[in-house]
Amino acid sequence: MKKDEIFSVIVLFFFGAVTTILSLKMDIGTFRNAGTGMFPLFLGVLLMILSSLFLSRNFFQNKKAPVKGEPIVEIPGSTKQMIFFLGTMALATLFFNKLGYPLISFLLMLGLLRILGIKRWALNILISFVTAVGSYFLFVQWLNIPMPKGWIGI
Amino acid sequence: MFESLQQLITGFGIAVTVQNLSYCLIGAIVGTIIGVLPGIGPIAGIALLIPATFGLNATSAIIMLAGIYYGAMYGGSTTSILLNVPGETASVITCIDGYQMAQKGRAGPALAICAIGSFIAGTIGIFGLVFLAPPLAEAALAFGPPEYFSLMVFGFIVLSNVTGKSLLKSLMMAIVGLIIGTIGLDPVTGDARFTYGSVSLLSGIEFVAVAIGLFGIGEVLTNVDQPLEMLEQKVLVPRLRELYPTLQDLKKSIGAILRGTAAGFGIGLVPGPAPVIATYASYMIERKVSKHPEEFGKGAIEGVAGPESANNSACQAAFIPLFVLGIPFAPPTAILLGALLIHGVTPGPLMISQHPELFWGVIASMYIGNFILLVLNLPFVPLFANILRIPKKILLPLVILFCMTGMYTVNNSVFDIWMMLLFGAMGFLMRKWAYEGAPLLLALVLGPKLEVAFRQSLMISHGDFGVFINRPISMVFLLATVIFLLGPLIWLMFKKTKKGGIA
Fold first, then answer.
1. Which chain A residues are Cβ-neighbours of B435 within 8 angstroms?
2. CA neighbor of B67 nearest in space, from B103, B22, B37, B106
3. What is the pLDDT of residues A101-148, one digit of tens each?
4. What is the ipTM of this complex?
5. Which one of B202, B231, B433 makes the best mutation probe of the A interface by having the most chain A beta carbons within 10 Å?
6. What Rg value do the Cα atoms of chain B yield, rounded?
7. What is the full DSSP assignment across B246-281?
8. What number of C-beta contacts closer than 8 Å exist between A and B?
9. What predicted TM-score, i.e. pTM, was given to this entire model?
10. Across the interface, do B409 and A92 touch by the CB < 8 Å criterion?
């Protein structure tokens, strides 16, 4: 069993444990009149049991020990790219209401295209602009979906 | 039976007027577009367009809104196949094999088989509606809380068994989904649970955020995680003759379509998110009956044909409890109930006798709507398949923009976008660690209903767990669950014993 698999199952075990502990703080009730905490309590305990089962089953089946030095999560050399990508999406979400939909969609496309390797600014700006305008007309004008107006005010 | 046929012919006479044909066409087109846009499902689509029907008569209004419903069901499968982003909840299972088919340059056959399967399912479903409505609706009334609980448990076990390589891992994902489903208000007492003062969490975690996050954003992040040179790899663009299914594809699919239709129709009568359950059940059936189950998850056309047919069939069947009992068993039909009431029509046992033109007109229009969807969408298969020509460097940001936009439109809430991103990161890690998202999603949808069924069952029985065994239908589902769980183990032990005996 690989190291990252062990790690993932341990995470699940702790998720189950946290659910169990938090459920115990709620009203459990009785079987006749179950309280708010009874169902998540069952689920938390069940998750802990299943993750323990998985760990023990694989421990006994797999005699080969995990390779020392094996990374917990293997990311083949594009971590920086993915973090920038995720970060751009997070920033866009943070300023979604303030800057407004048209501007945010333009800036989001600009950022993501740049990260993925569209280096020519003219092309990047053109694609971003066309996309932002197109999605504005599709969602705001045609489908009449209310979107934040932000600075531009449209 | 002959009277029903006569009424159906009358219904066709009402449905094929220029006016009603136009509304059916508009509904089907708008529904398909709505289904393609992630985040805006049939519920939102129908709700948004109810005001547009105020000037119409009841029959025309329901014809148009029904067109949106099954149009959206078809449209949802388009983004599932092309982008691995489920357009709506019932399209999640199509992502599994449909997207893999697209990756192998077979997006065209996948899209075409969806249209063909939906049409065949719709045609058969119509006849089911006409002839089986009264007795089937009566059988569905026999389901009480213990039966729903046992059925859902069976569904979880079966689904966990057919997705992914490890039953235990899939079961753990189902439990995680159930736990996430407990966030929000307790469905029985109304107390806040796991919200910690957050107003946004009071309504729970939005399903669409989880679906788009796990499947759509997770897939995008998996692609972005590769070196830039990998993103420049040529997409497998199909040649013209590869855009449509081959005879071999049709032969493989016809069995799946018929089985999916039957499963979807039966499940569509059961309260709850029937199209979702129907697609999962159909996928399970196809994987079990297939001579090559190892192909599932890698682009098996049966894995697309069956679930899509089940989806359409379940949508048809969902109209039975709505019209015959006046009870909407699925959220989209709840909106349709509202539309019917707005137009002065009260569905129920008397609807057929008091408004025969509406009942039979809508039934007939559903068949016409399915035909329109087939005629509209088959020619567009090459257009849709060519979306894959767009370089990934441009396509991926476009997907992100549409996902974020679609997500915002659900509740006009930035919180939902944050949830989508969180589950997107989770989806990325799940892919790394070989966990399946489908069991988690099904659990999220069914979790609150499972809990309500569980607690109601115990209230009915005064805390006696025997209620799940004493009722025959519930007992059958639980027995089937045990057989499903222990069956492979017993079979393995039997084979080992036999081998030992021969040796």
1. 8
2. B22
3. 999 999 999 999 999 988 899 999 999 999 999 989 888 887 777 889
4. 0.89
5. B433
6. 22
7. -HHHHHHHHHHHHHHHHHHHHHHTSSS-HHHHHHHH
8. 157
9. 0.73
10. no
